[in-house]
Amino acid sequence: MVFNLGSQAIQISIDTTYTFHENVKPSGYTISKFVGFPKIPSFLTIHNPLRELLPGFNDRSGISVWTRMGRRTLDISKFIQIVNDFQPTFFQVLSDYDVSVSSSVKRIRKSTSRNLEYLNEVIQKIDSSARSAFGTIEVSWFLVSPFDAEIALTHMLEKQHDFNGFILNGVKTSGKINPINISNIIAKLPENKPRFTPGEFKLWEIMDLVRSGVDLFDSSVVTRVSEEGQVFSLQLEKLNHSKATATPVLPSNESIPAKSNQINGDFSSDNENFSAAQLVLNLREKQYFGDFSPISTTCNCYTCRKYTRAYLHHLLCTSELLGPVLLMMHNLDQFEKFFQAVRQRLPDEQKFAELYEYLKSSDATQLPISVIGNTSTEVKNDDSPVRRNAARITNQKLSTIEGD
Question: Is it the case that residue 39 has pLDDT exceeding 80?
Answer without folding.
Answer: yes
